């Protein structure tokens, strides 16, 4: 079975996945939880290791992701709904890929949270909980 995603669908998936990592990096910076650069790098590397349809979509070199925001709250207002929308979209069109997407994002946020030497800060742990909640809201 071939799965066809529109350009908008692909943008939603990329915005959600990379947005989750960006949200953790922003929350880390706001909470002085370590290096936002290290958080973003480790999370992005995890996304780059995705396989299947999700891996192909995330690996595409595009400039269609808009993750601008002047605060963590503004970024969250954009990213959390995108995570829920991505899961809804994939559950309708490709349930196995929905699981793949969810697992990929969870691995990325775990990798990003481990960018710290010790346990994730309460700030990062709370943001990871919000991201997981958005994934599961679909």
List keywords for this structure.
mainly alpha, 138 residues, globular, 6 helices, single chain
Walk me through the topology.
Layout: H1 7-30, H2 36-48, H3 52-59, H4 72-93, H5 95-113, H6 122-136
Describe the structure.
The chain is mainly α and 138 residues long. The protein has one domain. Helices cover 73% and strands 0% of the residues. It has 6 helices and no strands. The radius of gyration is 14 Å and the shape is globular.
**Oligomer class:** single chain
Distance between the termini: 23 Å
State the domain count.
1
Sheet with the most strands, sense and barrel status: none
Low-confidence stretches: none
Which range best describes the helical content: under 10%, 10-25%, 25-40%, 40-55%, 55-70% or over 70%? over 70%
Structure class: mainly alpha
**Continuous helix count:** 6
Number of strands: 0
Q: Could you give the order of the helices and strands?
A: HHHHHH
The Cα radius of gyration reads 14 Å
> Beta-sheet strand percentage?
under 5%
CA-based shape: globular
């Amino acid at each position: 079975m071939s799965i066809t995603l529109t350009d908008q669908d692909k943008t939603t998936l990329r915005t959600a996945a990379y947005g989750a990592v960006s949200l953790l990096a922003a929350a880390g910076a706001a909470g002085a939880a370590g290096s936002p650069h290290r958080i973003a790098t480790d999370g992005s590397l995890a996304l780059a290791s995705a396989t299947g349809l999700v891996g192909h979509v995330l690996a595409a070199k595009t400039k269609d992701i808009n993750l601008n925001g002047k605060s963590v709250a503004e970024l969250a207002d954009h990213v959390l709904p995108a995570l829920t929308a991505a899961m809804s979209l994939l559950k309708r069109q490709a349930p196995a890929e929905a699981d793949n997407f969810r697992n990929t994002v969870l691995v990325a946020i775990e990798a990003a949270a481990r960018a710290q030497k010790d346990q994730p800060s309460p700030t990062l742990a709370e943001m990871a909980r919000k991201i997981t909640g958005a994934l599961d809201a679909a």
